[in-house]
Input
Amino acid sequence: MPKIKRRSKSQRNAERAKRMRERRIDDEFRLSDHRRRANSLKNQRQTDEFKIEENKRRAEALKIERENDEFKTEDNKRRAEALKIERENDEFKTEENKRRAEALKIARQNDEFKTEENKRRAEALKIERENYEFKTEENKRRAEALKIARRNDEFKTEENKRRAEALKIERENYEFKTEENKRRAEALKIAR
Output
């Protein structure tokens, strides 16, 4: 069996240093590879996050666009409803104007009728006033006639009183004469 040549200490140290260098180079390579992988993963993650954010922005943009479309649809509905209401208001105003025109026509006719009615009333009042004045004059004449009739009645009453008094006196004179004649007759009878 051949004898194994033993290496010197310096050779062993050199080999050890070489192995350590190689190991360090391998470690640095692995570390660098790990860094590259980490950077790649980081870049991939950032890319994924960017895509996620981009997708979120797109989804938000689509949501906003859909909301805008819905808003436009609602706005169009409101405009259509507003136009419908405006058209109905125009139709209502047209009808209202027709009614007002008819009401004005009727009011004008009523005014004309009232004017004629006022003329008739004024004429009737004039006639009534003339009738009243005539009746007033008639009442004055009647009052004067009644006054004269009352005076005549009073005169007749006084005349009747005087006549009654004269008749009473005449009756008393007659009675007195009758008594006087009786006394004379009695006196003549006694004298004979």
Residues 158 and 164 are 10 Å apart (CA to CA). The longest helix spans residues 9-191.
